[in-house]
Amino acid sequence: MGKADKSNLLNKINQIEEELRNLNKEKGDLQEGCKHSGETYLAFSTEHRNSIRVYCSDCKKELRYPSQEEITEWIGKNK
Ligand SMILES: [Zn+2]
Q: Ligand 1 centroid to 27 CA: how many Å?
Protein backbone atom coordinates (compact mmCIF):
# COMPACT_ATOMS: atom_id res chain seq x y z
CA MET A 1 0.00 0.00 0.00
CA GLY A 2 1.52 3.35 -1.06
CA LYS A 3 1.54 6.56 0.92
CA ALA A 4 -1.29 8.10 -1.12
CA ASP A 5 -3.42 4.99 -0.70
CA LYS A 6 -2.84 5.06 3.05
CA SER A 7 -4.02 8.64 3.51
CA ASN A 8 -6.86 7.89 1.14
CA LEU A 9 -7.86 5.00 3.39
CA LEU A 10 -7.60 7.14 6.50
CA ASN A 11 -9.71 9.85 4.87
CA LYS A 12 -12.37 7.29 4.07
CA ILE A 13 -12.32 5.92 7.63
CA ASN A 14 -12.57 9.42 9.07
CA GLN A 15 -15.46 10.17 6.72
CA ILE A 16 -17.27 7.00 7.78
CA GLU A 17 -16.72 7.78 11.47
CA GLU A 18 -18.08 11.27 10.94
CA GLU A 19 -21.16 9.87 9.21
CA LEU A 20 -21.66 7.32 11.99
CA ARG A 21 -21.46 10.09 14.58
CA ASN A 22 -24.07 12.11 12.72
CA LEU A 23 -26.33 9.10 12.20
CA ASN A 24 -26.04 8.08 15.84
CA LYS A 25 -26.94 11.60 16.89
CA GLU A 26 -29.94 11.55 14.56
CA LYS A 27 -30.95 8.15 15.97
CA GLY A 28 -30.62 9.49 19.52
CA ASP A 29 -32.72 12.53 18.66
CA LEU A 30 -35.45 10.34 17.18
CA GLN A 31 -35.41 8.02 20.20
CA GLU A 32 -35.53 11.06 22.45
CA GLY A 33 -38.82 12.01 20.80
CA CYS A 34 -40.34 8.57 21.42
CA LYS A 35 -42.52 8.07 24.51
CA HIS A 36 -41.64 4.32 24.70
CA SER A 37 -45.25 3.67 25.65
CA GLY A 38 -46.00 0.89 23.16
CA GLU A 39 -44.85 -2.68 22.78
CA THR A 40 -41.46 -3.89 23.98
CA TYR A 41 -39.26 -6.84 23.09
CA LEU A 42 -36.29 -8.62 24.57
CA ALA A 43 -32.96 -9.01 22.81
CA PHE A 44 -29.29 -9.35 23.52
CA SER A 45 -27.74 -5.98 24.19
CA THR A 46 -25.61 -4.57 21.39
CA GLU A 47 -23.19 -3.05 23.90
CA HIS A 48 -23.15 -5.73 26.58
CA ARG A 49 -22.96 -9.12 24.95
CA ASN A 50 -24.58 -12.05 26.74
CA SER A 51 -26.78 -9.56 28.50
CA ILE A 52 -30.51 -9.32 27.75
CA ARG A 53 -32.34 -6.02 27.77
CA VAL A 54 -35.86 -4.75 27.15
CA TYR A 55 -36.24 -2.60 24.03
CA CYS A 56 -38.93 -0.25 22.78
CA SER A 57 -40.62 -1.73 19.68
CA ASP A 58 -41.18 1.73 18.22
CA CYS A 59 -37.66 3.13 18.36
CA LYS A 60 -35.42 0.19 19.42
CA LYS A 61 -34.06 2.09 22.41
CA GLU A 62 -32.67 0.02 25.27
CA LEU A 63 -35.07 0.69 28.13
CA ARG A 64 -34.28 -1.49 31.13
CA TYR A 65 -33.26 -4.87 32.50
CA PRO A 66 -35.88 -7.57 32.05
CA SER A 67 -37.42 -9.31 35.05
CA GLN A 68 -36.63 -12.97 35.72
CA GLU A 69 -40.13 -13.88 34.47
CA GLU A 70 -39.58 -12.01 31.21
CA ILE A 71 -36.25 -13.75 30.66
CA THR A 72 -37.74 -17.19 31.33
CA GLU A 73 -40.60 -16.51 28.89
CA TRP A 74 -38.20 -15.14 26.26
CA ILE A 75 -35.92 -18.17 26.48
CA GLY A 76 -38.96 -20.43 26.10
CA LYS A 77 -39.99 -18.61 22.91
CA ASN A 78 -36.49 -18.73 21.44
CA LYS A 79 -35.89 -22.45 21.97
ZN1 LIG B 1 -39.30 4.24 22.08
A: 11
User: Could you tell me the distance, in angstroms and rounded to a whole number, from the CA of residue 26 to the centre of ligand 1?
Assistant: 14
- Residue 68 Cα to ligand 1 middle (Å): 22
Inform me whether the pLDDT recorded for 52 exceeds 90: yes
Amino acid letter for position 36: H
Q: Is residue 70 scored above 90 in pLDDT?
A: yes
3-class SS string, the chain: CCHHHHHHHHHHHHHHHHHHHHHHHHHHHHHHCCCCCCCEEEEECCCCCCCEEEEECCCCCEEECCCHHHHHHHHHHCC
pTM to 2 decimal places: 0.76
